Amino acid sequence: MRVATADRVKPRRLPGVDGVWVFIGADSVIFAVLFLSFMQERLHNPAVFEASRHTLNMNLGGLDTLILLTSSWTVALAIQALKRDLVGLVPRYLLGGVLTGLMFVVSKSIEYFEKFAHGITPATDPFYMWYFTLTGIHLTHVLVGTSLLTYLWINSRRGAYSSSRRAVPECVASFWHLVDLLWIVLFPLLYLMKAA
Amino acid sequence: MLVLRERVTWVWLGLMGLTCVTTWGLSKDLFSPTVAVIGIFLIAALKVRFVMLDFMELRHAPIPVRVAFEAWPIVVAAMILGFWFATAAVA
Fold first, then answer.
1. Strand-pair partners of A162
2. What number does CATH give the domain A19-192?
């Protein structure tokens, strides 16, 4: 009876290796401090922040959120497939993650080019300094994450991963979900937060 | 593996729906700025929580780790809303 109960209880564990969670935790704290600094700056220049916010393309920002959520979902499916040793499905789902990651990069590039074409740079005003800093740091995360997913995709096509060899895919997936959740806060902070 | 039977698929659909509600609903002028901003950031915190629990698989993480990560969206949303109200009072 005790054995049966123990079998049903799922042991608590962190995906991947513990070190990646230290990194994810530290990165989350750094971003929280950046959000705090953004709000402090906004406190001193609410009119400038509101006027510049209106010049952002909210539809493109919303689309970026949908793209990253979809990317996270396909990578989560890849991990679920890996756990069940459905190794043939893993590269397909990972490719979905890579392609949606690239879609985000293209979308963000279009947005940057639009801004530069209108003469808007980080030097334009405090809002745009923060816009380019926050989205630039986040875009760097997206580029790193997409590269790592591409590496996983190539290896998974060779059958390098399985349910018993999934630490690396789980680490990359956890980082990729961090990229997603940071954008979930960044998007409303920059694009949707209207003045009172 | 049926995609529709996976919990992550239903979580993803919910997150997509909530994104549409905030982007093309709450942010419009139908709502007062206070209602819109509170709603948008509460939904953002909820979305972050689901990404953590279901995509990052923290639902089955050791309790102290899960608590620490689940505190993040609460602290961040509270801090942003606190500053937003402070800015509104100053303006």
1. A165
2. 1.20.120.80
